[in-house]
User: What shape does this take?
Amino acid sequence: MSKKTYYNAEDLNKFGNISEFSPELGKKFFDYYGEVFKEGELTEREKALIALAVSHTVQCPYCIDAYTSGSLEKGATEGQMMEAVHIAAAIRGGASLVHGVQMMNKTKELLM
Amino acid sequence: MTSATLKRRQHLLSYATKQLDFLNQPKENGEQFTSFESKLNETGLDPLKPTKIDTFQINVGYMCNLTCGHCHVDAGPDRKEIMTRETMQECIDSIKDTDISTVDLTGGAPEMNPDFRWFVEELSKIDKKVIVRSNLTIILANPKYNDLPEFFAKHKVEVVCSMPHFTRLRTDSQRGDGVFDKSITALKMLNEEGYGKEGTGLMLHLVHNPSGAFMPASQESLQKEFKKKLFDTFGIVFNDLFAITNLPISRYLDYLINSGNYENYMQKLIDSYNPDAAANVMCRNTISISWDGYLYDCDFNQMLEMKLKDENLQHIRNFDLEALEAREILVDQHCYGCTAGSGSSCGGATS
Assistant: This one.
């Protein structure tokens, strides 16, 4: 397979390398990132499932790979993971549809 | 899932040397994986030495009624290696007057060894704690095994059984169709004998290992979830859950390679190296004995045919506890499986 694509799966493992061009900001980001995913009021599994849903919303292939593995490693089931993706889909769909109210408002404004 | 073992298929990975060669090969991009020995060295554990040997883990034979996708033994119905009563007697004679308190029986399905019950009875007579690693389904495999729960209870055998997941899908994908339902029935039979119930002293532990190319979740959270799901759905109770990481050898290695997950999984294990887990690996307090009486640092080294360095110590007939406790433990790349994350041993997480 040609490596000349925008997304290479192996680049996920190189995420840490972003520190190379800006070590200080890189460190700050990864320290923060690590803290965010630690067990808190939300469990690690809940955080992984939220991350999985968000990954689908931002449509980041690296994130989807990372949080599919991450969710499995935190003990999530296939059912839980698909429900998380449906949350992303529902919010995205809903975000379009809720603007339908605006369309209706405008329509009513324009029509006799 | 095929029912023939790698050995029966004369698969390349049924040869220990080929597995070790593969584990030491560079990655596709030509880079080498960091060697396990160098990691140990960084954490001041090289050479790895025993602490105190407390457990004899005896593999009484590779025959099994199942052919699970992850099996590091490559066990199955077609395996003929079986421990004789003479070798069992040698094991008994070796540990009888020592501080070794626990005998952990494994296989294959240890219950399929024709001398299994005799061995358990003899070990109880010399007051050793006996653990049996049961695949559960064996209890239902043939009427002659149906009374195993009663036999285990009579000798207060600690039962450690495989139950990768509380969902049928995940369990059957790893262990074969129908295994989940049979395991549930067997667990109920064990519960009826008092296993897993408070106050009986009959210990029933479950073993979870991931049904795929990822590391196990936290043992504590899985245990809570397994307890709830198995009790709510089936009324089943048990004592502890052991979360075990799959080691990249034998059939699991074959799975990793065929599914294209090998490099990522190996890298994940290496990146998750945990010095605390490394300090508590089970090879430091356990000796593994094969069906033919050879000694190994662990059941994985046994499958990779990594015999002890000192030729005079290699067989149970020359058992010398003091010398064994002074030996160097042999390590290779598969050892990353026991030191990743929370650590992994036959008793679950180690840190």
User: Anything to note?
Assistant: Chain A has a mean pLDDT of 94. The radius of gyration of chain A is 19 Å.
